[in-house]
Amino acid sequence: MKLFKLLFIFALAVVTTYLLMSLVGTQLVLADVGSFGLEVSFADRVSASLHDMLGLLPILLALVSVALAVAFSLANRCIRWFAGSGVFWYSFAGLCSMPAALLLIKYFMGITIFAAARSSLGMFLVSLCGLAGGWVFAQLMHKRKV
Amino acid sequence: MKTLTRLFIVLLFPLSIANAAEYKVETVVDGLNYPWAMVFLPVGDMLITERTGQLRRIHQGKLLPEPIKNLPASFSGGQGGLLDIILDSEFQNNQRVYISLVARNNKNNTLKVISARLHDNSLEEVKTIFTSTAYQTPYHFGGRLALLPDRSLLITVGDGFDYREKAQSLNTHFGKIIRIHRDGTVPSNNPFVGRKDALPEIWTIGHRNPQGLLVSTDGTVWLHEHGPKGGDELNKMEAGQNYGWPAISYGIDYSGAYVSPYTKAEGMQQPVVYWSPSIAPSGFCEYTGDVFPQWRGNLFVATLVEKSVRRLVMEQGRVKSQEVLFTELEQRIREVKAGPDGYLYLLTDSESGQLLRVSPKD
What domain count does chain B have? Predict the structure, then answer.
């Protein structure tokens, strides 16, 4: 039961980060498209966002799951070793998780697989998406330690 | 129902395999290390570039053991390395060749084009005539070369994968076709000469990773380029035009997200044809020989992912029909060239690549 609860809360954190990253990614890409002189309508923005949420599922969901699993495991250790707030450690772990994963992939593959993270602004926003996932995980999992 | 199906097949059949020919494929040479491009010398020899940095000579059907000497070092990580080679249109008089390669300096990769004189088994008077904007990625260099009828040189430059938006800016080489004179100077009639915001050597913009460039016998410039996931394109080129990447595309990002939700935009050229799913077009040639008369005037596109050569039957600047050839080889085909002997030659893309000759079946 405890494991089921852990997995459910982890899944919610993953979905939070995934949805936010997908949204951020689409808006940044559309901003670039707009900068080339194309007018992006609200309807196109909505349909592109939905398209990307589905399209990114196989790769980005796997990436977010692995990155947050590693990050939250480390956060759990940090809470034991250094004490402190669960919200702080899980949020901090979430914040670092996505840049760490994307930079690691770039180190080995030479490219950035999530297009929005190629710019400093994109990487910052992606980090915040990870932070949001960490915060959700901490709120639901470690309420007593808050 | 059967009659309808037969009628459908009969109607479609001529479109899909117009002027199909029976052929055989023979191995001329094997053991080539990721061969990338080939040229035919007037004396009957061939030069083949290996992406790992060697320029090889084939003499009387045999691969000479020693590579051509004095070739500058290239960086062969990712998609980089020694890339294309073409002969000067006055090669008989000046023995000059043009070679594209990727060079590395402090983690900065650049596409370079050198001009050199081929003397026996060595390059002399080696001079760099073009250096691209530096990449920090090892992908999407483009690297194809072609001479226009006025003897100026076209060079394809890729978008570097991580710099795709720069394919729309006029102040970098990413995602552009470059036009220079053979000595490296910029022609005064290039389309963006005189604009303060533009590099004067730019000829066209909006490309991703163009690895096929051809000036056909009627003077038309054709280019094919790799799309992302889908959206490989064949384009008819005109100076000063914008070919759209990444503002418009028929493909999507490898991640599954849009590169752009749009496929058309005002002021941006449409491809003559696009391929989705991707076939990964690489080499390119026009067949002008006599050995396969039914293929004369057709364009041939080598493909890596489809492991084929596409024969494009052209009519008034449009692709009338396509035939997928050589899939039985089950090999990634990097390059296709029509030889002066009328046979078709292929290079397979592998660590132990082959030079193959296609001739009519006995």
Answer: 1
